[in-house]
Design brief:
Elements (H helix, E strand, L loop, with lengths): L3 E4 L2 E4 L4 E7 L8 E7 L5 E8 L5 E3 L7 E6 L4 E6 L8 E8 L15 E2 L3 E6 L1
Parallel strand pairs: 2-11
Antiparallel strand pairs: 1-3, 3-8, 4-5, 4-9, 5-6, 7-8, 9-10, 9-11
Length: 126
């Protein structure tokens, strides 16, 4: 069983930055990966960013492309999300997810992931 612990959420003004981290108790297989999803008040859950352990490709939602950067530290079983130029519409609970196996085709689908973190609140004031 993989446990995920998120950290780094908080309150920031619009235009500011935050860095989220997600530490996995054990790493999923080399064919797996990790992602960030978010749920804003009154909205559906949405994909934010993802990365696989075995290749350098990264995947982003259009709404965050160019502002957010996902990275991984294989040695520490950690994935980070650097969020810059934050907007009020980025306010949400951010969840870290991990998959035992993930393909690039399904990487944006939450149902592809086996494990979820508890979530961390990000609030951007305008």
């Amino acid at each position: 069983q993989v446990q995920l612990v998120e950290s780094g959420g908080g309150l920031v003004q619009a235009g500011g930055s935050l860095r989220l981290s997600c530490a996995a108790s054990v790493r999923t297989s080399n064919n797996g990966g990790m992602a960030w999803f978010r749920r804003a008040p009154g909205k559906e859950r949405e994909f934010v960013a993802a990365i696989r352990w075995s290749d350098p490709d990264t995947y982003y939602a259009d709404s965050v492309k160019g502002r957010f950067t996902i990275s991984r530290d294989n040695a520490k079983n950690t994935v980070n999300l650097q969020m810059n130029s934050l907007k009020a519409e980025d306010t949400a609970i951010y969840y870290c997810l991990a998959a035992d196996y993930i393909s690039s085709y399904w990487i944006r689908s939450a149902s592809s992931y086996n494990y979820w973190g508890q979530g961390t609140q990000v609030t951007v004031s305008s």
